[in-house]
Amino acid sequence: MMRYRRADVAGATYFFTVNLLDRQESLLTDHISLLRRCMRSVKQRHPFYIDAMVILPDHIHALWTMPDGDANFSKRWMLIKSAFSRALAKTEPLKPSRVLKRERGIWQRR
Q1: What's the rounded mean pLDDT across residues 73-90?
Q2: Which domain range does residue 63 map to?
């Protein structure tokens, strides 16, 4: 089993790159309003500060500062990505491994 090392510092600032699985897609800019709504909704329930963010057609670069006492950025990304995915029509082909894990074929893993 592969284990990933992650920084786990409450209140720290983190840099992220989040990619679409299909790097030829432009879902993020085509559905920018939806992405903003998903981020806003998660941010209301699980606050964090967006220091900077660049949204390109196939990936996002983000610089976030987590609140004091909280380092759980992975939960926030999971909620944002799942809300965005659920709101899109299911048109992407799914591999059996994604079906087993109940994943959409939208986001690149890790």
Answers
A1: 93
A2: 13-100
